[in-house]
Design brief:
By secondary structure, this protein is α+β, with helices and mostly antiparallel strands. It contains 10 helices and 13 strands. The strands form 3 sheets. The chain has a 5-stranded antiparallel β-sheet with strand order 1-2-9-4-7. α5 runs antiparallel to α6, α6 crosses α7 and α6 packs across α8. The longest helix has 52 residues. The chain is extended.
């Protein structure tokens, strides 16, 4: 993962300097930024930026797959050319168990460091262009989040493919190609569905003529049906609650009373725990008696079914 070269980033990504004047853009495209080559495999993004003295970067080519795991479930996010990365110093949510970033192909990253800061100092509106690019990424991530909330998996899958086609697609005479090779499991991670369900949804979409497998990617033939809204969803506006001092907070100022309250709560919890243990012992004893009774009944039924057959009683008219 070494230094490869420098590149005229704003010549490749003119949208980053969209807010500069024509004269400023003509000068800015001459600015070069260092480039790092990322091999295929797991990438420690933070370690990369710290080691190179950068605070972020933008993908020039290749693809990164970011996986975020909550419990037994993992959500996926794709990053491609033009997408930005940055050092995240904020503490991760306690709900997130693991976050992994992996380069699925050899990838190049233009580094944001001192060179970019000096450029922004000369043309401050460059910061506006970088912020706008970040908002575009956030908007795409929000769209993926909304796709995951669609009730039908086939609708989620078709919508996701069209979303990916906006970044990696090409319009042809036959339809729109989505040139990204994705397994059914990866598609499930992108839309919040299990692999078997994704496989069924792909079959339904193929049979209906909405999509077609093509050269490892997909040919998109039909767009998702537009939603018909008869009325706007009416929600009570969320708002922060006023800061009020509760009875508990007011009593908390008295240390003695707080200790007394804590002791009462602790005693209550201990009594409830002891009661729970007694109830659990009684329930286990009842279950043992039920199992024993069922075993005796089953044994009697078995003996009755396998015992010697009884001779029929003689009729009243038979001779001795």
């Amino acid at each position: 993962m070494g230094f490869t070269s420098a590149i005229r980033l704003f010549e490749l990504e003119p949208d980053l300097i969209r807010f500069l004047s024509a004269e400023e853009r003509a000068e800015a495209v001459e600015v070069e930024l260092p480039v790092r080559a990322l091999p295929t495999g797991v990438i420690d993004v933070r370690e990369l930026f710290v080691r190179t003295g950068a605070f972020g970067g933008v993908l020039l080519d290749g693809m990164l797959l970011q996986s975020v795991r909550l419990g037994e479930h993992a959500g996926l996010r794709l990053l491609g050319p033009g997408d930005m990365l940055s050092v995240n110093e904020a503490p991760r949510s306690a709900l997130v168990l693991d976050t992994v970033c992996r380069a699925t192909t050899p990838t190049r990253l233009a580094m944001f460091g001192r060179d970019l800061l000096l450029t922004a100092r000369r043309w401050p509106l460059l910061v506006a262009g970088l912020h706008a690019r970040g908002e575009e990424q956030t908007e795409r991530l929000l769209t993926q989040l909304m796709i995951c909330q669609l009730p039908r998996v086939d609708d989620r899958l078709l919508s996701l493919m069209w979303l990916l086609a906006e970044s990696w697609g090409h319009v042809t005479s036959s339809g729109t190609t989505m040139g990204v090779s994705l397994t059914h499991e990866a598609l499930g991670g992108l839309i919040g569905a299990r692999r078997p369900t994704v496989t069924l949804a792909i079959g339904e979409l193929t049979e209906s003529g909405a999509i077609l497998r093509q050269d490892g990617g997909w040919l998109l033939l039909r767009r998702p049906e537009p939603a018909i809204r008869e009325h706007l969803l009416r929600l009570e506006d969320p708002r922060p609650l006023e800061s009020r001092s509760s009875d508990w907070a007011r009593r908390a100022g008295d240390a003695a009373e707080l200790r007394s309250t804590h002791e009462v709560l602790q005693d209550t919890v201990m009594r409830l725990r002891e009661q729970h243990l007694r109830n659990a012992d009684q329930m286990r004893d009842r279950l043992r008696r039920v199992h024993a009774t069922r075993a005796r009944v089953a044994e009697r039924r078995r003996k009755a079914a396998t015992g010697p057959a009884r001779r029929p009683a003689p009729s009243s008219g038979s001779r001795p």
